[in-house]
Structures are given as C-alpha cells and as structure tokens.
Design goal:
15 helices; mainly alpha
C-alpha cells in the first residue's frame, strides 16, 4: 500500500512538471496536455515528437527527427540533449515505431555517459531485449507500446525484481516514471497467471493486423477496379445514338481519376479498413 500511495502522490505532482507529465502521457493512456510558453528547440522537438507518436503520425515525427538529426555529435560532446533521457527515449520509440533511419540516434547514444540507461537505449535500438544489463522495467514499458507479443513472464519477473531495488527506482524522475508505469503493466499481465498464453495471443494479434492491412489494400483496389470495369461495360451497353452524344474518353478518364483520387486519400482507406476489422469482430484498430 505504501508503494501505491507514493506512486499516486508522485504522479499527482506532475501537474506542475510538463516534461515529466509528457513522458507519462507517452507511456500510458493519459491524454497529452501540451505546455504553454516559450521552450528551447530541444524541448519543442521533445513535446512535438510525443504528440506525433500519440497521434500515430509518421510524417509529423519525421519532421521533428529531421530537425534534431542535423546536429553533429562529436566524441566527448557535452551537448545537453545527448544526456536528456526523456528526449532520447522518445526518439528511440519514434524511430522504431515509424521505421526510420537509426544510425544517427545510435551514434548519439554511444557517445553518452556509460550507465544502465544508456545501455538499455542502445539495446532497444538493436532489439537486444534479453540482455541482463538492461533496465527491465524500461524494456517492459517500451515493448508494451511497440510489440506486446514479446512480453514474457520472465521479463515481468525481472522488471519486478529491478523495481524492488529502491536505490535504482528513485534515482531520477525518468526511471521513477518508467518504474511506476511498469508496475501497472506487471499487475495487468500477471493477473491471468498465464502470461505466455497471453503473449501468444498478442503475437497472433500482431500477425492479424498485418494480414488485415494486406487484405485492405487488395480489396480496396480491386473494388475500385471493379467500379471502373462496371462503368465501362454500362457505357458500352448504351444505345448507339446515346453513346454518340457522350465523350467516352472523357468519362473513362473521369472515372479513372475518381479511382486514383480515392486511392490517394488515406482516410477513405482507413475507414474501409475499420469496416473489415469490424466484420471480423475486432474493434480496437489502433
């Protein structure tokens, strides 16, 4: 009970700490409240990157990543952003989530002070989740956001054990927030007592979503093609005197243009994908 009370008290105090609040919003289901005021370029990139990740906007995140990745990082650099755990973790999530080039970020991480957090960041980028040198609560929090199927019972136990070390749990706001989030996840996953089975279900969920994306693409484009073919046949079934009054080429170009236009607008395809998800009884399409 003491731990829970401390957790609640600490999270309540984040209302006056925008950077910490933004991190907690990133790793949880909390709504991101963007702070008001003037910020450094680095902090602006941090907040905007979190917002892009929460919105699942690859374009917006890539825009922020392009800004910061222009910075040259030399050996023994003392640039503050290199040692900003909040920013680096956010960039790691975004780069892997949106499958962006990660060489620059990996180079930045290798020039940080060597500690458990730095090691874990590097292992996240290289997908080395099993290393004993990792901060397991950080791995758990990360995987819950990007790939729940890789969460195992062993990882949950390791994360819980690492959180039991008070000196590690509260050495920084960054680690403290990660530990508190991991604590919630451990409870969530351990309640059914069969985490490995849940892991397999989550792995199936990942495959299911990928297959639905393929089905959506094929079905959507086949539907557009059928509409075009149907319109073409209807046109040729018209009486000759009526067809002579119609610019056949113009109509076909117009129909083809509608199909192309429909294929370009992502919202149309997303709505179509939602319908397919619902057809299979799956409501959470995020």
């Amino acid at each position: 009970m003491v731990f829970i009370e401390e957790k609640h008290s600490y999270l309540s105090s984040l209302a006056n700490q925008p950077k910490q609040s933004a991190l907690y919003a990133l790793v949880s289901d909390e709504i991101l409240q963007l702070p008001q005021g003037n910020f450094s370029e680095t902090d602006s990139i941090y907040y905007s990157s979190i917002q892009a990740i929460k919105k699942n906007s690859r374009e917006e995140f890539n825009s922020q990543y392009a800004k910061i990745s222009k910075r040259k990082v030399s050996e023994n650099s003392v640039a503050p952003f290199i040692h900003d755990d909040f920013l680096i973790f956010t960039l790691v999530i975004g780069v892997l989530k949106f499958e962006l080039e990660k060489d620059w970020l990996l180079g930045v991480i290798t020039k940080r002070a060597k500690n458990a957090t730095t090691t874990t960041f590097e292992n996240l980028l290289t997908e080395n989740y099993q290393s004993k040198a990792n901060i397991h609560s950080l791995i758990l929090t990360f995987l819950f956001l990007l790939d729940k199927s890789k969460i195992t019972n062993e990882l949950l136990v390791e994360a819980y054990n690492s959180m039991s070390d008070i000196t590690q749990s509260f050495k920084s706001d960054f680690i403290r927030i990660i530990h508190y989030r991991a604590f919630d996840l451990i409870i969530q996953f351990k309640l059914p007592r069969d985490t490995d089975r849940i892991s397999k279900l989550l792995e199936f969920e990942t495959r299911f979503k990928k297959r639905i994306n393929v089905i959506t693409y094929l079905t959507y484009n086949i539907l557009l093609l059928l509409i075009l073919i149907g319109a073409y046949r209807i046109l040729h079934s018209l009486p000759e005197d009526l067809k002579s009054k119609i610019n056949e080429v113009g109509i076909l170009i117009g129909i083809g243009g509608v199909g192309l236009f429909g294929n370009i607008i992502p919202k149309w395809r997303m709505k179509f994908k939602e319908l397919i998800f619902r057809f299979f009884g799956y409501r959470n399409t995020q």
